[in-house]
Design goal:
CATH superfamily of the largest domain: Acid Proteases
Oligomer: single chain
Structural class: mainly beta
Shape: globular
Radius of gyration: 21 Å
CATH class of the largest domain: Mainly Beta
CATH topology of the largest domain: Cathepsin D, subunit A, domain 1
Number of domains: 3
Strand order of the largest sheet: 6-9-12-5-13-4-3-10-11
Length: 392
């Protein structure tokens, strides 16, 4: 699980879990033809779920092997120790890793699942849920999240991301491939996210699909490969401060070029670097499509798209922002690096270029702070109760 506060990456744990088996009910009604859930989203794919009559906000995360709830909710459920898990999972969960490394038993717990509803559909046969502290991830997304909906639950539905309407829908009936411009198969297996391939010339790289990450990530070895192919933009990496399930981490970002998906050029692709052989495409990839459908029963991705190629603006600064529960706030920065901008960690952001942005628009604020040309950025911040106007 990795998160960067200037350009957030949420790569949830590579956990191991499968769902319990159930016997089909011969008296069941026909599969609903329409969506069982349709919700608006702005940046992070947030899904309402219902547990014990209460509604919670979960992140739709194909990068998570199981559903994980926030630790602050864990007392409402029966705790499970590692030795109490089904034998099939005990070895898998004895060593759990995030993108940056191992996760300790203090950071990851388990509880006995209870029925969970997504829209009009109730799931009551999951084998286990994880528990973690999601405070850092709430800070990065711009709203409190209560958990993540993992691939164990995601596989039960067909999902369509409509990026023109900013809507995510879930259905039990698979949409017809005829309704999309193009469909391709993907690879899938136990303890894995859906996998597709990017190509560079005659070479290819398998990339998992991680909707819990807003930015793609690759191993350092691939960065070196692309550098050898002169397909790395710029002279070096951009440093970023980040956090994952193991705590705050130093991170680096690169812009890759000359990659293709389904024979379509991607132009430039910004990626975060890791040293643990983790490769995934995040929401920055999904958002290039007009519509993007995940159809687990067919192991198929369908999409509508114009051009997938993007030219990415360079980062001119590295100013990190978090959601503090009510406001957007300058935070997690090196104090010396902020001096030249007239900012301090703890400054509350009231307006950027005259606009009062909502917490859920945190990504827009990050982009403005880090790519605006010198002299074009005007901010009003609140510091120790006093309003300050700052020009950068």
């Amino acid at each position: 699980m990795t998160l960067q506060f200037s350009a957030m990456v949420l790569a949830i744990l590579i956990l191991s879990a499968v769902q319990g088996c159930s016997v089909p009910d011969s008296s069941a009604t026909a599969t609903p033809s329409g969506p069982v859930l349709a919700v608006h989203y702005e940046s992070a794919p947030l899904i309402p779920v219902t547990i014990a009559g209460e509604q919670y906000q979960f992140l739709l995360d194909t990068g998570a092997s199981i559903t994980v709830i926030d630790r602050r909710l864990a007392s409402r459920f029966k705790a499970l120790g590692l030795s109490e898990l089904p034998l099939a999972y005990q070895a898998d969960f004895a060593n759990v890793a995030s993108v940056s490394g191992q996760v300790s038993s203090d950071q990851l717990g388990f509880v006995q699942p209870v029925p969970l509803s997504v829209g009009s559909v109730t799931i009551d046969d999951s084998d286990l849920w994880g528990t973690m502290d999601f405070e850092l991830f709430s800070q990065s997304i711009g709203t409190r999240i209560d958990g993540v909906l993992g691939i164990d639950t995601i596989r039960r539905f067909n999902w369509v991301f409509d990026n023109e309407q900013h809507q995510i829908s879930a259905s039990l009936r698979a949409p017809s491939a005829a309704g999309f411009e193009r469909c391709i198969g993907y690879e899938d297996s136990y303890n894995r996210s859906p996998a597709i391939y990017l190509t560079h010339g005659e070479s290819s790289v398998r990339m998992y699909l991680d909707t819990g990450a807003d930015q793609s990530y690759v191993d350092r070895a691939f960065i070196d490969f692309m550098a050898d192919k002169q397909a790395l933009l710029g002279a070096g990496a951009s440093p970023r401060k980040g956090a994952d399930a193991s705590g705050m981490q130093a991170a680096s970002e690169h812009i890759l070029t000359d990659l293709h998906f389904d024979e379509r050029p991607l132009g430039q692709l910004r990626v975060s670097e890791n040293g643990n052989d983790k490769y995934a495409l995040g929401l920055d990839f999904v958002n290039r499509f007009k519509r993007f459908a995940i159809i687990p029963g067919r192991m198929m991705i369908c999409y509508d798209a114009g051009s997938l190629a993007r030219q990415l603006p360079p980062f001119l600064r590295n100013i990190a922002v978090r959601f503090d529960g009510q406001h957007l706030q300058i935070y997690y920065n090196d104090e010396q690096a902020l001096i030249s901008y007239g900012l301090k960690n703890g400054d509350l952001i009231e307006r950027v270029n005259g606009v009062a942005y909502r917490p859920l628009e945190i990504d827009k604020v990050r982009e403005l702070l880090n790519i605006s040309k010198p002299g074009s950025l005007k901010m009003r911040v609140i510091r120790e109760g006093k309003a300050l106007d700052i020009a950068i």
